[in-house]
Automatic annotation (TrEMBL):
Residues 56-165 form the TonB-dependent receptor plug domain. This is Vitamin B12 transporter BtuB. Gene3D superfamilies: TonB-dependent receptor, beta-barrel domain, TonB-dependent receptor, plug domain. Residues 351-932 form the TonB-dependent receptor-like beta-barrel domain. The keyword Ligase does not apply. The lineage of its organism: Bacteria, Pseudomonadati, Pseudomonadota, Gammaproteobacteria, Lysobacterales. It is found in: Cell outer membrane. Belongs to the TonB-dependent receptor family. It is a multi-pass membrane protein. InterPro entries: Beta-barrel_TonB, Beta-barrel_TonB_sf, Plug_dom, Plug_dom_sf, TonB-dep_rcpt-like. Residues 1-28 form the signal peptide. It comes from the Bacteria.
Length: 968
């Protein structure tokens, strides 16, 4: 193995001189056993309850990852830490290139990122227009610990806490200074990462101030540099029909041998002279050959990022000043800037109505570059064409600036021999995002460029216009019309000149903003003495406003871009809430009930857009014996529709679908045939997509996604029942086992194209039929409106297991083992309440793996200043529908309705190792390797733009890193 960069090589050389080792476990367990943390009599607030208590055990399952746990994983972002936990489902991350925007999210229980509430220090963080939180706006350098509540909590926190709550606790009361550095890269010599951070904290008798500055630089990995992603479909030589060479579409004469008039031609590869009779570069029909994918198709995958680059810079401040002995002023502020980028192959540009473009984008019969030009003996026909602009890659860049401020007061007091805590504060969060899209075409200029053009004898240049309409010089003294540059879309690969590119391409500038501000006031304390202890309560109010906008570039909004057009989005809503919570200790220290307590909570929310909602919860905690605790919860939940759902402007999308009116649709029956005929579709109609003719493919006409201002909230019911066992006869062993269930009704979902077509042609639903239109000339579906509605039903059930064992210390050191596993027993979804439930457990869909089992385990050894941690990450097998013949693992599979080939994505286990040595001068050096055995991700044939799901590690590579921490 050759390390291609010197930074990592030098860092490892330094680390080897300093020494190696590590101590501690990699994955924390549920915060139930008392042995896991030092006992304290300070009243604390645990995620899932607002009541401060000396008991860290709650009736709800909470996973705690402390700073030491996080630092042992060799990752550089909060998102990477969270997406490794066993209860996490698939979510967007840096491996999303086509369709990614540099953000990373967390989706507990695979219920969606917008159904997982993210808090920072117990307060809401800014969310995107879709309601999800970008974890890349939270620097890992400021994290003290992360608490993950694996239960619904709308009664405590309000909207979005359906699948659970992630509470990121930042560093405070720190006294001293610390500097750290992380340097790493993949074993192939790419994907370099550098992270540096410095934290300073100072205490006085009445105050504390913490300042942290950090920067993370993460480099790209190209898809062409890994065998599994170097081609569009791993194991096949598939290519895009949009060739890098100019291509003529559908211009053959219609006759008995070619009744459709379809006969694609492409210019021969460079090597021919490409010179017309006048000595200028042009391509005649004798330089074109019939197009074939094998000879002329384009491998677009090689140009894509596999892992996208990103840079994050953050400044964090947190302070406290004790105004009196019982009242403190607290404040914190954060600035985080993210710069990220995605790259795709050059734009697959096309012209002509059959390719979904306006008529004036066809190459004019009077164009100098049209091989059918009458000047050269042709018939003067317009030409439908395509050309992949390999001369300029498509690059999408984001600059996201996140601002956070919290100011408030908190304190405590005693009244009637009762203890009380209170806080009031103002929380402000805002993200401003500026996007640049490089490589899209201005279709107005494309239309002008492919219009009439001729060789101007005066200048010797090809210019726009015709000899009968002589041009006049512009300010640049070029003989062209209004700055027009003739464009030759039929040029061979690399033949589009820079002058042509400068004319037809533009850089789109988009702007986004997400803003959240709230006022909160909370009071908690003691009410009365009960047999089990003091009854506690918490109550509070919150007033919050959410707003945001998406302002696309003017050309994008007007539909003049070659990329997907979209209209502006803007909107806001506000709400007022009030909640109350009770903790009722019924019994303590009696036979059969070392502890028995109940918890009750309810929250009333009044939204400006849809009205009010009331959500409650009930929980219990029972210790029949000292070693065993039984816990359970029942909770109502809701999710308010986010700004994008309510106010989204129409946005183009090229959907992949199957037109059930196509004569080659395998499920065609008499009902469908009759409904299609009634809609004017002929019996021999064949669907046309950008892949050619035949059922299923990506539409050549853009469909539209839009918002629904009448959308209402989702509602849910969550249930958990579990136990915590810490046997006194096995010191150091702690076991947790929890059953959980989440049912969601009125789930916001956008009906798929398939659902709309089925509702129209099979069910006779006129409203569904009104959502799309067909062209009169070729009957292709040229428009469809896709908008969200409260239609879906979801029912998810499973089990969580946690085992933590700290072995008795031996002469050979201290050993600790841990296991966290999440098993999904049921995941049923219904597109509508009337639809049949569909089980998706163990099924793979495009970028949506539904693992039955995820598990993490670790084995840790420490001895003195040395130590090593070994971590394993397990993903269970999946199956997917497969249409790639012998590439499928089960190509001959059949079901009652006919052939149903399937592919299995095998179970995958990753191994990570880290070693650490505590240096005599209060420093720590670490060496680590993630994916030690270079495990390849399971191959998928339904994943968009790749052959493996982006939740898996980069294939065929180990990530090697070195870290150094110096404390002062």
């Amino acid at each position: 193995m050759t390390l291609k960069t010197t930074k990592l090589r030098n860092a490892i050389s330094f680390a080897l001189v300093a020494g190696t080792a590590v101590t501690g476990t990699a994955f924390a367990q549920d915060a139930a056993p008392a042995e896991q943390a030092a006992t304290t009599l300070d009243r604390i607030e645990v995620t899932g309850s607002r009541i401060r208590s000396v008991d860290a055990e709650t009736s709800q399952p909470v996973l705690v990852l402390n700073r030491e746990d996080i630092e042992k994983q060799g990752v550089t972002s909060v998102a990477e830490v969270l997406n490794r936990i066993s209860s996490a489902g698939p979510s967007i991350n840096r491996t999303f290139n086509n369709g990614g925007d540099g953000s990373s999210t967390i989706s507990l229980r695979n219920l969606g990122a917008s159904r997982t509430l993210v808090l920072v220090d117990g307060r809401r963080w800014v969310s995107g227009l879709d309601g999800s939180v970008d974890l890349n706006t939270i620097p890992s350098a400021v994290v003290e610990r992360i608490e993950v509540l694996k239960d619904g909590a709308s009664a405590i926190y309000g909207s979005d806490a359906i699948a659970g709550v992630v509470n990121i606790i930042t560093r405070d009361n720190y006294d001293g200074a610390e500097a750290s550095a992380h340097v790493g890269q993949y074993s192939e010599g790419d994907g370099e990462r550098t992270s540096v951070a410095a934290t300073i904290g100072a205490n006085t008798d009445r105050s504390n101030l913490v300042i942290s500055l950090s920067r993370v630089e993460e480099g790209e990995v190209m898809a062409r540099d890994r065998e599994q992603s170097a081609v569009p479909v791993f194991g096949r030589q598939d290519r895009s029909g949009f060739s890098a060479n100019g291509k003529i579409w559908n211009n053959a004469p219609i006759d008995e041998d070619n009744p459709t008039g379809f006969g694609d031609l492409t210019v021969v590869p460079p090597g021919s002279t490409g010179v017309g009779p006048d000595g200028q570069q042009r391509y005649g029909l004798d330089q074109f050959v019939p197009y074939t994918t094998g000879a002329h198709g384009y491998n677009y995958a090689a140009d894509n990022y596999l892992l996208t680059p990103q840079t994050r810079t953050a400044l964090y401040l947190k302070g406290r000043f004790d105004v009196t002995d019982t009242i403190s002023f607290v404040a914190d502020a954060l600035y985080n800037e993210r710069r990220s980028e995605q790259q795709l192959a050059g734009f697959p540009l096309s012209g002509g109505t059959d390719l979904g473009n306006p008529a004036d984008t066809a190459l004019s019969g009077d164009s100098y570059f049209n091989p059918y030009n009458t000047i050269y003996g042709g018939d003067g026909r317009d030409v439908q064409w395509s050309h992949r602009l390999t001369e300029q890659a498509r690059v999408y860049q984001q600059n996201v600036k996140t601002f956070h401020t919290y100011v408030g007061f908190n304190g405590s007091f005693q009244f009637a021999e009762r203890y009380f805590d209170w806080d009031v504060g103002y929380n402000f969060n805002k993200s401003d995002q500026e996007d640049a899209q490089i490589g899209d075409a201005n279709m107005l200029n494309v239309a002008a460029g492919v219009g009439p053009s001729f060789l101007d004898p005066t200048s010797g240049r090809v210019v726009c216009g015709t000899p009968d309409n002589p041009a006049t010089p512009d300010v640049n003294e070029l003989n062209i019309i209004d700055g027009c540059v003739p464009f030759n879309p039929l040029a061979p690969a690399g033949g589009v000149t820079q002058e042509m590119l400068d004319f037809i391409l533009f850089t789109a500038q988009d702007a986004y903003q997400n803003r959240s501000e709230s006022f909160t006031a909370n009071l908690s304390g003691e009410i009365m003495e009960l047999p089990g202890g003091m009854m506690g309560f918490a109550a509070g109010v919150e007033s919050r406003k959410e707003s945001g906008f998406d302002r696309p570039d003017a050309f994008v909004a007007a539909g003049y871009s070659s990329g997907n057009g979209r209209q502006p989005t803007a909107g806001s809503y506000d709400l007022d809430e009030i909640y109350a919570e009770l903790l009722i200790p019924v019994l303590a220290d009696v036979p059969g009930a070392q502890l028995l307590e109940f918890s009750l909570a309810s929250r009333y929310s009044d939204y400006s857009n849809f009205g009010d909602t009331l959500n409650s919860k009930f929980g219990f905690k029972w210790k029949p014996i000292e070693d065993l605790m039984v816990r359970g919860n029942w909770a109502e939940g809701f999710r308010a529709p986010p700004i994008q759902t309510l106010f989204r402007g129409l946005a183009d999308s090229y959907e992949s679908f199957g037109d059930i009116c196509s004569a080659d649709y395998p499920g065609r029956n008499a009902t469908i045939a009759a409904a299609c005929a009634a809609d004017g579709v002929p019996a021999d109609f064949i669907q046309r997509t950008n892949a050619g003719d035949g059922y299923f493919g990506q539409t050549i006409y853009p469909f539209s996604f839009g918002g629904n201002p009448n959308a209402g909230p989702e509602t849910s019911t969550s249930k958990t029942l579990g136990l915590v066992y810490s046997p006194s006869y096995v010191q150091g062993l702690n076991v947790t086992l929890d059953w959980w269930n989440v049912e969601i009704e009125g789930a916001l979902s956008t009906p798929s194209v398939a659902t709309i077509l089925d509702q129209c042609y099979m069910q006779g639903n006129e409203q569904a039929c009104s959502l799309f239109t067909r062209r009169a000339d070729n009957h292709q579906i040229d428009y469809m409106l896709l908008a969200p509605a409260n239609l879906a039903v979801i029912d998810v059930e499973g089990y969580d297991l946690g085992v933590d064992y700290r072995f008795p210390e031996t002469a050979y050191g201290q050993f600790t083992a841990s296991l966290n596993a999440s098993y999904t027993a049921k995941y049923d979804s219904q597109s509508t309440p009337e639809a049949e439930p569909e089980s998706v457990v163990g099924q793979y869909f495009d970028r949506d793996p539904n693992w039955r089992l995820r598990a993490n385990s670790s084995l840790d050894w420490s001895m003195g200043d040395f130590g090593v941690t070994w971590i394993t990450r397990y993903y269970s097998r999946l199956v997917e529908d497969c249409g790639f013949g012998d590439l499928c693992s089960d190509p001959d599979r059949r079901i009652d309705t006919g052939p149903a080939p399937r592919n299995t994505l095998g179970a995958t286990t990753y191994h990570d190792v880290q070693a650490r040595y505590e240096l005599p001068w209060n420093g720590t050096v670490k060496l680590g390797m993630n994916n030690v055995f270079k495990k390849r991700a399971p191959t998928s044939y339904s994943t968009f733009a790749n052959s493996f799901d982006p939740q898996y590690d980069i294939p065929d590579s180990s990530y090697i890193y070195m870290e150094y921490v110096q404390r002062f």
